[in-house]
Amino acid sequence: MSTSRRTKAFAACVAVLAATATTTATATATERNPLARFHGQHVDWHACALGADDKLGQDLDAAGADCADITVPLDYADPGGRTITVALSRLKATDTDHRIGPLLLNDGGPAGPSLHMPLTKSEAMGVVADRYDLIGMDPRFVGRSTPLDCGWDLGSAPLRSAGADRTAFRQEVTVARDLARQCERAHGDVLPYVTTRNTARDMDLIRAALDEDTLSYLGYSYGSYLGEVYTQLFPGHTDRMVLDGVMSPKFYNQTLLRGAEAANEAALRTWASWAAARHSTYGLGATRAEVLATVEHILDAATQKPLRIGKTYLLDEHVLPAVLIGGVGSDLNKRRADLAATVRLLARAADREPVEPSQALAGQLVFLLTGEGSAPASQMTAIICGDVAERRGVGSYWRTVQASRERFPLAGPLANNITPCEFWDRPAEAPTVLDNDVPALLVAATGDPRRRRGRA
After folding, report:
1. How far is 70 from 65, CA to CA, in rounded Å?
2. Statement: 39-147+191-253+429-443 belongs to CATH 3.40.50.1820
3. CB neighbours of 418 closer than 8 A, spacing ≥ 6?
4. Are 295 and 277 in contact, with CB atoms under 8 Å apart?
5. Where are the alpha helices (DSSP H) in 113-254?
6. Can you give the pTM of this predicted structure?
7. Do residues 407 and 261 touch, judged by C-beta distance below 8 A?
8. Is the pLDDT of residue 20 over 80?
9. pLDDT at residue 108 is higher than 90
10. Residues 6+ apart with CB under 8 A from 171
11. What contacts 174, CB < 8 A, 6 or more positions away?
12. In the chain, what are the domain boundaries?
């Protein structure tokens, strides 16, 4: 064999050996850490806008943010199996000399998209934001992540009220059962993995893919629960943790608002006093009692016959309470004024006058009454049911509704109504028990109607 041929043969052998060594090393690393291929994945940061009509993407691009899709396992117990993607946005730290690391953001929900949050939080955090890479994440199956939509023709599944009597409640049982079966037919193969624990695992995989040792976190409402689960599963991987509107794992349950009835009724009374002080503007009553009587008149009318709003919407006793409770979730004057304007319109509808919805009310009704709300409602329901579903028996819901109704006439039947979770498969994992000493800043407001009783 000539010298040149021997040289080429030697080079080929070296290449084969190198490839074999690399393959062996990769196989060994994967065997040692089944998630190695996810942790070491290349993060392809790119422009955020998906097209000319994508305002969120355009706003992110204009602010200097970039976006990426991270590949994660559908089932962390089978990391070699099916994968899904989780969408991220990033606004990089500008104070690079004092950079702390990534700060992942969650806007609540469950199933709240959070890709937008680097834009809003960079303003609120001021100079502090300059020291972090602000990371927005649409949780698995939410927003721009791999999607989930059960194809429901109404979007209010997690936010329906039991109604005034046993007949109305039986209708709710049928609705909940049908929605659960429809979701099982559409997505039964993925429903066991639509959970908070898996979203927390996604967060830690994102941390690793970003080549960071620790992750800072800011989460609101349900986002506080997600942060709590992350600290429990990955206590050594946290840096700064801020949990705002703290939700206690002890009271995280499938009826979503259960435990917050008193706070919601108190918030309604506070709003009624605010509206009474502005009777000349809204005409709802000159005293708190008169305003609350107006609300009761609206509820009674919807019980007798659904309220017609415009040519499209019929608002019945099962959905109306969610409109009212949704309006008392803030003590800002603008939100209180929005609710007062809505109640004034509903009062006219209760008197069977023709009314047209305001832009704000139309948005609510589209979400609550039509298929346009199907995707977020499906995602919210799937997360809650995947986390904490348990078979209680249909009758137990009605008994709880009746027991709560006298003290909490509006919030009780809403917070304790049956949900599709009653007909869901049991969760693949037990609910998270919080038992760690990871330091975190807990933020809560007295009387917060979205916060359950108890301590986190």
Report:
1. 16
2. yes
3. 162, 169, 172, 173, 176, 394, 397, 398
4. no
5. 117-125, 166-187, 196-209, 222-233
6. 0.89
7. yes
8. no
9. yes
10. 163, 318
11. none
12. 39-147+191-253+429-443, 157-190+254-423
CA–CA separation, 61 and 227 (whole Å): 28
Separation CA 335–CA 341 (nearest Å): 10
Whether the bond into 110 is cis, omega within 30 of 0? yes
> Which residue from 371, 363, 384 is spatially nearest to 151, judged by alpha carbons?
371
CB neighbourhood size of 353 (10 A): 10
The amino acid sitting at 73 is P
Report whether pLDDT(167) > 60.
Answer: yes
**Calpha distance 264→273 (Å, rounded):** 14
Structure-block tokens of residue 23:
């393959």
Phi then psi for residue 332, to 5 deg, are -75, 140
Distance from the Cα of residue 345 to its chain's centroid? 29
Quick one: pLDDT band at residue 452, thresholds 50, 70, 90?
low
User: Could you report the per-residue pLDDT of 257-310, keeping only the tens digit for each?
Assistant: 888 899 999 999 999 999 999 999 999 999 999 999 999 999 999 999 999 999
Positive/negative CA dihedral, 426, 430, 433, 436: negative
Looking at residue 250, what is its pLDDT? 83
Q: Can you give the pLDDT at residue 225? A: 96
Q: What is the pLDDT of residue 132?
A: 97
Contact 169, 163 (CB under 8 A): yes
The token pair at 388 is: 């904490």
Q: Is the pLDDT of residue 19 over 80?
A: no
Residue 320 is encoded by which pair of tokens? 């109306």
**So what's the pLDDT on residue 454?**
39
> 172 phi and psi, to 5 degrees?
-65, -35
For 5, the token pair is 């041929």
Contacts of 289 (CB under 8 A, 6+ apart): none
Closest by CA position to 134, among listed 15, 242, 41: 242
User: In which region does residue 393 sit, left (phi positive, over 0), alpha (psi from -120 to 50) or beta (all else)?
Assistant: left
Which residues make beta-bridge pairs with 136? 89, 105
- The pair of structure tokens assigned to 208 is 């690793």
In sequence order, the 6+-apart residues with CB closer than 8 A to the CB of 269 are 288, 292
Residue 4 has pLDDT above 60, yes or no: no
